[in-house]
Amino acid sequence: MDSALAGLRILDLSDSIAGQFCTRIFADHGADVVLVEGPSGSPLRRAAPLSRADGSSLLFRHLNTGKRSVVLDRAAPEDRARLDRLLGEADVVVLPGDLSDRDVARLNPDSVTVRVSPFGTDGPLAGWKGPEIVLQALSGMMFNNGAHGREPLYGSGARASFAAGLAAYVGAAAALLARPALGRGQHVAVDEAETAAAMCFPYVMQHIYNGTLRSRADLNIPAGQVLCHDGWVCIWIYNHRWTAVCRTLGLEDLEADPRFADPAVRRDNWAALFAIIQERVAGWEAEDLVDRLQRAEVIAAKSFGLAELGRNRHLDSRGYWEFLADGRRILGPAYRFGATPRRVERGAPGLGETGVPAEAPEAGGAPRIAPGSPGRGPLAGLRVVEVATAWAGPMAGRVLAFLGAESIHVESPNRVNSWRLNKDAPNPVNFPDGVAGERPFDRSFLFNSQNVNKLSCILDLKTEEGRTILRDLAARSDVILCNFRPGTLRKFGLDYDGLKAVRPEIVVAELPAFGKTGPMSGYAALGPTMEMATGMSSLIGYEGGQPETTGPSYLDPIGGFNTAAAILTALLHRQRTGQGQAVEIPQVEAAMQFIGAEILAAIETGEDPPRRGNRSPHAVPHDAFPTRGEDEWMVIAARSDSEWRTLAAAIGRPELGDDPRFASLEARRANEDTISALLADWTRGRDKHEAADLLQAAGVPAAPVMTPSDLARSEYLAHRGFYTWLEHPDAGRHPHPGLPLHLSLTPGGQRRHAPPFGADNGTVLRDILGLPPETIARAEAAGAVTTWPLPGA
Description:
Blueprint: E1 9-12, H1 17-28, E2 32-37, H2 58-64, E3 68-71, H3 77-89, E4 92-94, H4 101-107, E5 112-117, H5 132-139, H6 159-182, E6 187-191, H7 192-198, H8 201-210, E7 223-228, E8 231-236, H9 242-248, H10 263-268, H11 270-281, H12 286-295, E9 299-302, H13 306-309, H14 313-317, E10 322-323, E11 329-330, E12 336-337, E13 383-387, H15 392-402, E14 406-411, H16 445-450, E15 454-458, H17 464-474, E16 479-482, H18 488-491, H19 496-499, E17 507-510, H20 527-534, H21 555-577, E18 581-584, H22 587-592, H23 596-605, E19 622-626, E20 633-637, H24 641-650, H25 665-670, H26 672-683, H27 688-698, E21 702-704, H28 708-712, H29 715-719, E22 723-728, E23 732-737, E24 742-743, H30 761-768, H31 773-781
Parallel strand pairs: 1-2, 1-4, 2-3, 4-5, 5-6, 13-14, 13-16, 14-15, 16-17, 17-18
Antiparallel strand pairs: 6-24, 7-8, 8-9, 10-11, 12-18, 19-20, 20-21, 22-23
Helix pairs in contact: 1-6, 2-23, 5-7, 6-7, 6-21, 15-21
């Protein structure tokens, strides 16, 4: 089988996780990726975690499998000439800090250039240092994590950098799709900090709508955790599944218990409820508990340890793990393509092992589609139909719509998007000024933040009329995406096999949480339970405490970006060959890429890393510290002896820089509690923003832990143009958080408000499909098309 990106040549000059992850995605799908390294090699070759077998960096292996390596001394004239030749042949160049996109454009105007940096090259934070804990503090996500009154938790690994690398791939792939129409390449800029903020927008939008400032004491309800005899389980108790929870656990007497029967009272007694559940299930097997709950349609997941993933029955049943020719293990594919499956033909390269490559291969085939035109989004001219709900699926459609595609959001009149309308009574915190209004389903901050730029078409797919309309719409569309349980599209005859007859070029993308096959394929999931299943949660938590999850469903927006990346990969293949295909994005497997090195290390050693709050073996201090105000915090990190001495001087204690207790990383680790107490004494009475500015000006990584209100007035995000004012006919005028994708010639953006329920039925039925009035009238009479949710939806 062909590879999706065969014929593309990618040049990676970066030394960053984000840059090298971006190009790893290209390599996975058949592009020829050349990593350009200096004489001493990429710094990531020496980055932890290291393999016990040979001392090599597992992070470097994970980021660079499938690539080739060229060593060039860019200060040497002869090597500069060789680099110019490589630049002249490249379709995509991921830039280092000291090479301009204009320099590349002069050599090769067809090349797409990509720059990923912590804070961009200009703006109020351009000079800041941005390790992961700083990026997570600034994102707003960290504020959501951990126990009220304790230090918030930053998360695990380098997920902000991986997310930025994924976003950079999305931007680069979109620029490649637009290149034939433009007749040239363009520049793509992605900030890690802006990307991290884009993953946390719901609570920001809620604050913008009605001023709500949630306490961390409230953030994790309706989720809770229990410890079975072989591991932790997260249980998500929706109000409408309360009876199912009680009966599945054999706790029928709780159903009418006055402490729990009413949802509002139940929230006040949440700890007591989970104490009872804990006592009931303490001797159960975790996976058995999850299976029982899932069969009762209660969302739950086990928190898998990283080492445990290497022998996971579900992953094994899907043939997930892959092995290189030398026997080394690599993670399986993030996306599964029907026509162009991933093929990894080489491991991570040795330093300079390939020399300067030969001429680039011919791509073959003329472009069949060419979206994009100057000043518009790179995907202008493409049509996307999303049969999706909540966050991940609509997020994918939102990314594509931001980039210029026409995105049509399809809902059923009796199964409305849960972010418009759920089965609970309308909650004032969801609406502008706390007022539900006559059309609460059009006033929810959740739906309206997620569905900008889209059209709304309401179709009941349980009717023949509804299915016929969607099939006709698919025949005029480029992409169908669905995030319901596996088999939903097939049940209606609207999967790839059912649609390719009417649209051979169609790309049909489905994003089941656990994939379309395997013993867990039918499980429902949310971001927190997917985070449990990936192993991420096993890395997050206070020392001696339970595994924790990240904010309001961190993996949902990640799933949206992964889906957008997979769809763009399929569209690039289609542009070259005219061939459509089915795409499966198993969200858990795709998200595992973000902690791939940690997973490989744990499987190799059989040992899971301990949970230690924010503390790191590679930096001391590396933690959150209290500042002036209620539950206000800042983060500080010192990754080297030099940064420690700078920090000591910046807080007015220069003598601590040479104190024998703190003179080396090992010494600082041994005296970490003392350091934490010293820093907390310094931070406690200070404003978190002013203290972070002071430390960053001195050269110390630091940041305020941002709240939704902080993000709403962030000077950095304002400088990036992150917010767009949009006027909604039912919800009013508000600034809407954006996306971190900046393309120089086809910028995309947020052009219109989220659609009211069924507001674009006429546009779809009359203007796009050309249906006559009598056909539309029959569909409306049959209840296949409506502009108002049915009772009980």
